[in-house]
Specification:
The protein is of the alpha+beta class. The chain has one domain: 2-Layer Sandwich (Peptide Methionine Sulfoxide Reductase, Chain A), CATH 3.30.1060. It contains nine helices and eight strands. The protein has a six-stranded mixed sheet, with helices on one face. A two-stranded antiparallel sheet has the order 4-5. Strand 4 and strand 5 form a beta hairpin. Helix 4 packs across helix 5. It is globular. The relative contact order is 0.20.
Length: about 210
């Protein structure tokens, strides 16, 4: 499955336990933070079984935060995405593997060009099954040695999620030129290409 996901992500950029047992047509939720939410939306929106990806803010102590207040670092919130998906078509472990391939999980001070705790990487779990799966996934990634440094991505219980302002939603589609310019200048893709083309990464992807 990882080979399939990695192949799909390569084309776009450049089973297991379910988080919950569901009846036909049920929608599950996953919440991830991986730095700039503009860059986190697109890879998940392309996946079969993903119904919606919303950019927003979570993890803080201020109700109804704004982009400006979160960016200033005064709210405790983190830029994040909320993914609505069909567990019958894609499972939580699949989403976790896509998540790891978007971020630098060894950086506790932000992600790429975006610095500060409001841009750090976090997996927000919605139930104990998600928590267990996230912890196991993080352990496997750490044991693989793909990143060569300790994995510092946090695993935290999900709380209130506040959707970001409308102009942030699907920013990559609304403002493709600005998005591509920002993404390139951020260094994200250059870093990810370097990491996921190593022999250790190929072994990790092939083993799962």
């Amino acid at each position: 499955m990882k080979n399939k996901i990695f192949w799909l992500l390569t084309l776009s950029s450049m089973s297991v336990l379910l988080p919950q047992q569901s009846e036909a047509g049920e929608t599950a939720i996953a919440t991830f933070a991986g730095g700039c939410f503009w860059c986190m939306e697109k890879p998940f929106e392309k996946l079969a079984g993903v119904k919606q990806v919303i950019s927003g803010y979570t993890g803080g102590h201020v109700a109804n935060p704004t982009y400006e207040s979160v960016s200033a670092g005064s709210t405790g919130h983190i830029e994040a995405i909320r993914i609505s998906y069909s567990p019958e078509q894609i499972n939580y472990n699949d989403l976790l593997e896509v998540f790891w391939q978007q971020i630098n999980p060894t950086d506790g001070g932000g992600q790429f060009v975006d610095r500060g705790s409001q841009y750090r990487s976090v997996i927000f779990y919605h139930n104990e099954t998600e928590k267990t799966l996230a912890e196991e996934s993080r352990r496997k990634l750490a044991d693989s040695g793909v990143f060569g440094q300790p994995i510092v991505t946090e695993i935290v219980k999900a709380g209130e999620f506040y959707p970001a302002e409308e102009y942030h939603q699907d920013y990559h589609a609304k403002n493709p030129v600005r998005y591509q310019f920002y993404r390139y200048r951020s260094g994200r893709d250059q870093f990810l290409k370097k990491i996921w083309e190593t022999e250790k990464a190929r072994r990790y992807l092939g083993d799962n």
